[in-house]
């Protein structure tokens, strides 16, 4: 029940945010981080090499941060311009706001689904003493309260029932 209340509150906040920003700006905002990472991945090494070859000492981390922030900023400016154009068209502006609210709902659903799947997968791997986690020197016993809390949160949740294909309570400890 508590999980459903938390999901409902976050869904309402993201729906409100989607209505406030509109669909186009929300989509651009959502995509700006992956696009920024891609820009750094594809252009970062070349820019560092270019700056170094021209006698400019450039720390790669600073170049990567500048590229990332620059890409995100450009996308936000583009989103603001497009949003202004769409808002100037009466019918399109209303549709943009309503679709933005729907995107906020989808964003909230995906966020909680991913978070719970990630946490459940981590706790299950820890419980099964996954060899990949051995290097972290994590003790299963230290995470028993987390496991129990996770299982209590999932039991009786409508969100978990709807997403039962993806979300499950963890099995008892062996």
From TrEMBL:
One example of a Gene Ontology biological process annotation: toxin biosynthetic process
Write down the superkingdom of origin. Answer: Bacteria
List the GO terms this entry assigns under cellular component, sorted alphabetically. membrane
Q: Which UniProt keywords apply?
A: Membrane, Transmembrane, Transmembrane helix
The family database entries (Pfam families) matched by this protein are listed as: Colicin_V (PF02674)
| Cytoplasm listed as a keyword | no
Q: Where can this protein be found?
A: Membrane
The protein in question is named Colicin V production protein
Provide the species name: Thermosporothrix sp. COM3
């Amino acid at each position: 029940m508590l999980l459903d209340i938390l999901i409902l509150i976050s869904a309402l906040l993201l729906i409100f945010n989607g209505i406030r920003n509109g669909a186009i700006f929300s989509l651009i905002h959502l995509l700006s981080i992956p696009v920024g990472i891609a820009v750094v991945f594809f252009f970062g090494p070349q820019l560092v090499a270019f700056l170094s070859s021209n006698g400019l000492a450039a720390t790669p981390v600073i170049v990567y941060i500048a590229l990332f922030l620059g890409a995100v900023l450009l996308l936000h400016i583009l989103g603001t311009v497009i949003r202004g154009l769409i808002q100037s068209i009466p019918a399109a502006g209303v549709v943009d706001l309503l679709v933005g609210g729907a995107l906020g709902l989808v964003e909230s659903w995906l966020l909680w689904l991913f978070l719970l799947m990630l946490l459940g997968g981590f706790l299950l791997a820890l419980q099964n003493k996954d060899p990949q986690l051995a290097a972290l020197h994590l003790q299963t016993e230290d995470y028993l309260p987390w496991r129990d809390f996770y299982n209590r949160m999932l039991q009786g949740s409508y969100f978990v029932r709807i997403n039962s294909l993806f979300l499950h309570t963890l099995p008892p400890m062996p």
